Amino acid sequence: MQLLVSLTSPYARKLRMLALELELDVEVVETPPMEDGPALHAANPLGKVPVLLLDDGTALYDSAVISGYMLSLVPGQTLQPTQGLAYWYARTDEALADGVLDASYLLRLEASHGEAGRNPLWPERYRRTIARGAAALAAKVSATETGYLELCTMVAVEYLDLRFPEIDWRGANPALAALHARLKDRASLVATRPPA
Ligand SMILES: N[C@@H](CCC(=O)N[C@@H](CS)C(=O)NCC(=O)O)C(=O)O
User: Fold this and answer.
1) C-beta 98 within 6 A of ligand 1
2) In this model, does residue 188 exceed pLDDT 90?
3) Bridge pairing between strands 59-61 and 2-5
4) Which of 56, 66, 71, 162 is exposed most, by the fewest CB atoms within 10 A?
């Protein structure tokens, strides 16, 4: 399997990290989406990374689809529940972490538009979404266990540090600060941290 990524994409980082956690044989292929390469467009008409190319040449995309597939490849995995409502709650938890990423990504795009003619409604709305999302993640993460939720949360808060160092998610959410202090040296996170 090949995973098409950009090294700064937090969505791709979730999967690079998950592949390491699950010890999957995945070749990571750097494929910057802004280059609009034909291979990326053939695999994902939306032109986004991450994309997982399966060995038969077909493609899966959207990080939450790919993570579900990767987790299904390892039946005994303990990172996420597999049955009943617990499974759907876990999928919702990933959607929550992804929502923080979505708002952060949109906020970054907004910032690149410059001030002229800009409607402040959207950046302010994205910042409130990030704050609510971070608070909701803080209420959900375990103080001692490490599952996919905790790992996705790490990716989300480190993306905030990368792009918006002024957002004080640690001060607002001591549980997230404690999570970060506990997991920041975990091998899968260290190995996938975006280049400075
Ligand atoms: N919902 C998608 C979001 C993926 C996404 O937005 N990726 C960004 C990189 S961080 C991208 O490829 N952007 C290029 C574009 O939007 O054209 C997922 O979870 O995979």
Assistant:
1) yes
2) yes
3) unpaired
4) 56
